[in-house]
TrEMBL record, chain A:
The lineage of its organism: Eukaryota, Fungi, Dikarya, Ascomycota, Pezizomycotina. This is Ribosome biogenesis protein NSA2 homolog. Belongs to the eukaryotic ribosomal protein eS8 family. Ribosome biogenesis protein NSA2 subfamily. It comes from Penicillium cosmopolitanum. The keyword Transmembrane does not apply. Component of the pre-66S ribosomal particle.
UniProtKB/TrEMBL annotation, chain B:
Keywords: Nucleus, Repeat, WD repeat. InterPro entries: NLE, WD40/YVTN_repeat-like_dom_sf, WD40_G-protein_beta-like, WD40_PAC1, WD40_repeat_CS, WD40_repeat_dom_sf, WD40_rpt. PROSITE patterns: WD_REPEATS_1, WD_REPEATS_2, WD_REPEATS_REGION. Transmembrane segments: none annotated. It comes from Penicillium cosmopolitanum. Residues 16-28 have a biased composition (Basic and acidic residues). It is found in: Nucleus, Nucleolus. This is Ribosome assembly protein 4. CDD domains: WD40. PANTHER family: NOTCHLESS PROTEIN HOMOLOG 1, WD40 REPEAT PROTEIN.
């Protein structure tokens, strides 16, 4: 309420007395100084202030980029050349924007099958970090043989827990993932796909067995909805994908399809 | 690594066990039904054939009815004709195909009883039978870019022409799987190819806004490019053989510049320009009655008289661009005087007469010549038209869930097949546009489809790199033809039924045969 009144107060003053004579000049100078001030702040602020400043600046930049992009789109000339695409297309696929954009997943794969899968630097994870010792109960406490996995895992739908006595590893429900956001590297399309199994965890074969999802883990995902087809005409069901993020930090599993 | 399917759930297992336990019911006809009176009618003329005949219900299957009808007509054992029977009720105008026997089609559903006289309309089926293609006879490299259009010669299945993105068209010898000629001249993609109905000439339309004509035998250019269009050529149609002025065939070309031009092929001059469409013309067809049908992005279908270039009719019902048109007589017009026997009349006059006879045979329904038209559109629907009788569509064909890209009539006009971007091919009744069945199996958009000459099979080409051959009557997959390494843009079944030719993005022509 207070600010509202204050604004009105200023407006009323300008209405009554007009602007200062050097108002425009002052505004121009302030604007001209703006970038210098920003640069000074960015270079010299330290600590929490710097952090807050960067955050603010980051948001501003996002807005700025959006606005620039909007402007650019507005400026596109409508008489752009009609040549729809570089690759030859039959008559019925010309003039169809989505047909070229949503390009057949299948076709791009073949050209680039030889390309090697993306490699990710794998940071070693020690067993201490991976497992937490569970010592509840008398016997368990005495020998401390039970472990809780502290990393995200994939647990198959057919998994049933073993009796408590024989259960050596516990995979917490809260850290289980069934789906991964899988990117097709050539097409730049990201789709959420169900995970089928964990094929290889580069850390440790034991982790593979347990289905631990860490950065660099190779898993099999269900790509049936992408409509990929083998050369023999069969629909591809499962395909391998490699985890690209640290799932425990992000709360989701991002992966890249290995084609 | 092979992926193991999850084991069946308990519900699935129980259902399976139940099904196995239950005795499968056998479809048999009860023997105590006595007999039913059947009256045959000719579908083409609507006249009754022979007297009403009493037939035992237990024996009234299509095979026996066929024999009976042949006997009634006095056909010898040598020239027996296979027939298809349909039942047409007098009141509601409903049409039912007799698939196996009278009992299951009419008596069991309670449409007719054994007390009634059943009127059956018969249409002759192709006396020849096309075998489903099952293997790739040849994969011929040659084109440097994707193949955009293919067409078999109407004369025989031994030559085929294909248009490609490498701005050439090539003629192939399909018997040996070797290239015959390279038709060089265009400066951009060849989007449309068409053989003239007598098989002597090839017309190609290109991205470079020109049409070119070629000698089909020698593979040489017949004069320079036909220039006039301002944008690329989308579709080509030859004047039907039986209405051509002798020695002066004409060609219609549709273009993105929203005009259709009719060319005199001999003098290479524009005869008429059909202007009026407000958007790209996607498809042109030259009907056997001399009218030109065009479909356009401006949502309309227009019918023109090429003599004076006047607009005869505008059919507007679609809500989005019209992608493709098919005439019920397409097959007869395409093949002109080339019939399944392979005998070609020697004299030009006889050729024209033979072509006219074939057209009239194809177009005659109940004694009048009727050319039906079906149009496929981006609004996910198709319309069936009978332009000669009404401006309003006969039927609206609903069912596709995405754009319908291609539509075609079967050579005997009993079926319409439509291919859509929703991965399905759908079969419709060619007479009233009723939905018959969906052919599921493709996992990518279906681009084109083509009936075999005997209308019993259909081949479809898809983005999922496969061709599939379907049995039209049962709606089942007859043959899966993998082999292409990329999207299959164009497919054609030779008019004599021997071969299927296909081409696509993998730059190789494939010839398939049985």
């Amino acid at each position: 309420m207070f600010t509202f009144i204050a604004v009105e107060y200023i407006e009323r003053w300008t209405k009554q007395h007009g602007k200062r004579l050097d108002h425009d000049e002052r505004v121009r100078k302030r604007q001209a100084r703006e970038s210098h001030k920003q640069s000074h702040n960015a270079q010299n602020l330290t600590g929490l202030r710097a952090k807050l400043y960067q955050q603010k600046r980051h948001k501003e930049k996002i807005q700025m980029k959006k606005r620039i992009k909007e402007q650019e789109e507005k400026n596109v000339k409508s008489s752009a050349p009609d040549e729809p695409s570089k690759t030859p297309l039959p008559q019925y696929l010309l003039d169809r924007s989505q047909a070229t954009n949503a390009k057949a997943l299948s076709s791009a794969i073949k050209d680039k099958r030889n390309e090697k899968a993306a490699k990710f630097a794998v940071k070693g994870i020690s067993e201490e970090e991976m497992f937490k010792v569970v010592n509840t109960g008398k016997k368990t406490h005495q020998k401390s043989w039970k472990r809780m996995i502290t990393k995200p895992t994939f647990v198959g739908s057919d998994f049933t827990r073993r009796p408590v006595k024989y259960e050596r590893f516990i995979r917490p429900m809260g850290l289980r993932y069934k789906k991964a956001n899988v990117t097709h590297p050539e097409l730049g399309v990201t789709v959420q796909l169900p995970i089928l199994s964990v094929k290889k965890n580069p850390q440790n074969p034991l982790y593979t067995q347990l289905g631990v999802l860490t950065k660099g883990t190779i898993m099999e995902v269900n790509v049936s909805e992408l409509g990929l087809v083998t050369t023999s005409g069969k629909v591809v069901w499962g395909k391998w994908a490699q985890v690209t993020n640290v799932p425990e930090n992000d709360g989701c599993v991002n992966a890249v399809l290995l084609v | 690594m092979a992926t193991l399917l999850p084991p069946p759930s308990k519900r699935q297992r129980v259902a399976q066990a139940d099904k196995a336990r239950e005795q499968q019911e056998i479809d048999r006809i009860p023997s105590d039904l006595g007999s039913v009176r059947v009256q045959f009618f000719d579908q083409a003329t609507g006249n009754p054939t022979g007297p009403a005949v009493s037939v035992p219900v237990a024996d009234a299957n299509t095979k026996n009815l066929e024999t009976l009808l042949n006997t009634l007509q006095g056909n010898d054992d040598d020239d027996r004709v296979p027939y298809r029977f349909t039942y047409q009720s007098d009141k509601e105008g409903q049409t039912i195909d007799i698939l196996a026997d009278l009992y299951h089609s009419l008596l069991q559903p309670g449409i007719k009883t054994t007390e009634d006289t059943v009127s059956l309309y018969y249409t002759p089926q192709a006396v020849f039978r096309v075998k489903a293609v099952s293997r790739c006879a040849a994969s011929i490299a040659g084109h440097g870019e994707a193949i955009l259009a293919t067409s078999f010669s109407p004369v025989s299945s031994s030559t085929m022409v294909s248009g490609s993105g490498d701005s050439t068209a090539r003629v192939w010898d399909c018997d040996t799987g070797t290239p015959l000629h390279t038709l060089k001249g265009h400066t951009s993609w060849v989007l449309a190819v068409a053989y003239s109905p007598n098989g002597a000439m090839i017309a190609t339309g290109s991205m470079d806004n020109s049409v070119r004509l070629w000698d089909a035998k020698k593979g040489q250019a017949l004069g320079g490019p036909l220039k006039g269009h301002a944008k690329w050529i989308t579709s080509l149609a030859w004047e039907p053989y039986h209405i051509q002025e002798p020695g002066h065939p004409r060609l219609a070309s549709a273009s993105k510049d929203s005009t259709v031009r009719v060319w005199d092929v001999v003098s290479k001059r524009i005869e008429t320009v059909l202007t009026g469409h407000k958007g790209s013309v996607t498809c042109v067809r030259w009907g056997g009655t001399g009218l030109i049908y065009t479909a356009s992005h401006d949502k309309t279908i227009r019918i023109w008289n090429p003599k004076d270039g006047t607009l005869v009719q505008t059919l507007s019902a679609h809500a989005h661009r019209v992608n493709h048109l098919a005439l019920s007589t397409d097959f007869a017009l395409r093949t002109a005087y080339h019939d399944h026997t392979g005998k070609v009349p020697t004299d030009d006059k006889e050729k024209v007469a033979a072509a006219r006879k074939r057209f009239e045979q194809a177009a005659t329904v109940n004694g009048t010549i009727v050319e039906r038209l079906v149009s496929a559109s981006d609004d996910f629907t198709m319309y069936l038209w009978e332009p000669s009788s009404s401006n309003k569509p006969v039927a609206r064909l609903l069912g596709h869930q995405k754009e319908v890209n291609y539509v075609t009539f079967s050579p005997d006009m009993a079926y319409i097949a439509s291919a859509g971007f929703d991965n399905h091919v759908k079969i419709w009744n060619g007479r009233d546009g009723k939905f018959i069945t969906t052919l599921r199996g493709h996992v990518g958009a279906v681009y084109q489809c083509c009936f075999s000459a005997d209308s019993r099979m259909l081949v479809s080409s898809s983005k999922d790199t496969t061709l599939k051959v379907w049995d039209v009557r049962t709606g089942k997959l007859a043959m899966d033809l993998p082999g292409h390494k990329d999207e299959v843009f164009a497919v054609d079944w030779s008019p004599d039924g021997q071969k299927v030719g296909s081409g696509g993005k993998d730059k190789a022509i494939r010839i398939w045969r049985n």
